[in-house]
Design goal:
Blueprint lengths: L1 H22 L14 H13 L3 H13 L5 H17 L3 H14 L6 H14 L3 H12 L3 H7 L1 E5 L2 E4 H9 L3 H4 L5 H23 L6 H27 L4 H10 L5 E2 L2 E8 L5 H10 L4 E6 L4 E2 L3 E2 L1 H8 L6 E7 L2 E11 L2 E2 L6 H27 L11 H6 L1
Antiparallel strand pairs: 1-2, 3-10, 4-5, 4-9, 6-7, 8-9
Length: 396
Amino acid sequence: MRKVISFLIVVLVFAGAFFAGRAHYIPNKEYTPLPWTANDEINYIDKLLAKGLNRIAAQEMEKYIDGYRGSRKELANTCYRLGNIYMKLYEYQKALKYFYRAEMLDENADFSEDMNNKIVEALENLGMNSQANYELEARTSLVKSAMTKAGVAASIGKRKIGENEIDRAINRLPKNVREQFKEGAKRNDFIKQYVITEALYDKAKRMGIDRIPDVKESIEAAKKQIVVQSMIEKEINKKLIIDPSDVKLYYEANKDKYAERAKVKIRYMEVSKKDGSNKALESLKSGKGKSEWVYEKDTYISGLGKAKDTVKELLKRKKGDTFGPVKIKDKSYIFIVEESKKRRQKAFDEVKKQVEYEYKMKKREGIVDSIIKNIIEDENVEIFNGPASEKDNNDG
């Protein structure tokens, strides 16, 4: 009997310990996990994209779209965004799937014109040229009324190129050249060049040139440069404020840049051992010899080469003075001064536009340097230099 009782006690002890341990895993009925909101999901997708994990971001966005219960307009924006991600991944069928879905959700979306172009691009990249042409014709018909008002400049097959398209292309040119293409013969030349380029581009896409890996990489590299430059220009325009008083201060601090240098017009000729310097001087006075202008701070004379000391001496002379003979390299020369002009400081009003331009360029450089410095700090940029070459090690 004692053995039975001992056995029961042991069993009860182990059972108590077991259930005591299990008690730690009983869920707390008062605990409620924090919800994962739609906003959290979007932030998560943005983070994946920022880290370059485009494919994973696309998969997460698909889940988000499947479970979305909000407005049609917001869902259309998300579908369009996902279509763009798949375009970057060169998955054109999936891109089309979400572009068409976005179109059905919001026919009048702000992104419609851009999406139309991308639908045609995706179809062409899939080799579906007939469908691409059909889509192009159908979608460009949406803007035919606007094109008719502006006038048609040219056509490529069934595609009409309106004057407004030409105007947009001209407006993308640098400001200093765009005016010359606004009208007349130069505009006609621009239209011809533009249409030929468009026709060649269409043919290249039909040939699949844009799908060649090296070409794709070059396109992406060019796109990056354009986007980066646009971002920099936006920051510059926001921060570049020119104060007239700062321009005047810049002039005062850099007056030497805005002065006409002292100069002399000389005529010279070589002194031969046979005839001597007197004969050479007579020839110079009779109008023979070679003429050149020599300026303050010049270190050479055109046609003769390095002659720093000679230049200094000539600048001290007045009209009609002679100088020499002096040896330059292995030959001797004699000089006569035909004209002499002293250094002249230009007034601020004379050079105001030049000063404004140069000050503006200097400010731009400072802003760009600041942008680069900030991006290095904000994005935690590190540049790892490779192992130094033997030449580098010996330079110091």
